[in-house]
Amino acid sequence: MKAVGLKEYLPIDAENSFLDLEIEKPHELKARDLLVEVKAVSVNPVDIGARSPKDSTIKDYRILGWDASGIVTEVGENCSLFKIGDEVFYAGALERSGTNAQYHVVDERIVGRKPKNMDFANAAALPLTSLTAWESLYDRMNIDKSKDAGKTILIINGAGGVGSVAIQLAKMSGLKVIATASRDESIEWIKSLGADEVINHHFSLSKQLAELGLAGTDYILNLYSTEKNWDEMCKIINPEGHMTSITRLNKPVNLGALMDKSVSFHWELMFTRAKYETPDMVRQHEILNGIAQLIETNQLTPTLKKEFSPINVENMKKAHALIESGNSIGKVVLSDFQ
């Protein structure tokens, strides 16, 4: 089968940063595994980090990619959620070979049914970002519309893939949404998704909130550089508020700054459930099915903004370069092997 992979970690503009490969089709499935014929994949910051230059070596080759949509072609002996022929979308697992291949093996508990009114490209744009946004808001910060409607949330880096979904979910939950953006096109994008206010993450968040007449915010979802935004987040979070971040720390921060306000800080990593096979691992199947229903009822706007076809080295390099530039809006997708 065809695949796009790498044999060494190189800058994206290096000649061999990606290679077109012919590899063996997967043939061993665990009891709850699906074999999926991949129709489309999307590129996320995690792909950039995995591919970027590093000292470690690759024994043979490595296939990256996590987001995917496709068709189930085989099922494991204990599968009960899907059957052959089902159209699915999912975000995969860190410990398994990636989705940038014609066929991919994935545990059915982290797979959802593809929205019926959406093509494979648009579906591939959603899993990782929608799972991250959903888990951040509802599983980490426990936002509940019945008791939290009217509260405020600040979403830092609102125009990216996760922010694009989080803005919409937060509005559905009755929150007042303040999101950050700095360019005209990204400001226009997040306003179209329902953000009530937009502020610039390059300037003081606390000062800009004050100019909006807000002393602070009840929730913060940080999607860019935890340590860069830490002091400002600690300043503007309301007493007994909740903060969630999806970006790793590169240097220590003062966690004690949250004690006086009894603030809860949460990490969100979408891959946790699959990595540790947590007892609630099937929750991701349920979330993705919920996202599919929101799409089918036109409550959630698709986040695909750029599509390349076919899935090959040339287009994979374009997609990685675009994400790496920091100027992408929404999601970048590659579709169809040829």
From TrEMBL:
Residues 14-334 form the Enoyl reductase (ER) domain. Transmembrane segments: none annotated. It comes from the Bacteria. Coiled coil: none annotated. Pfam families: ADH_N, ADH_zinc_N. PROSITE patterns: QOR_ZETA_CRYSTAL (PS01162). The keyword Metal-binding applies. Belongs to the zinc-containing alcohol dehydrogenase family. Quinone oxidoreductase subfamily. This is Zinc-type alcohol dehydrogenase-like protein.
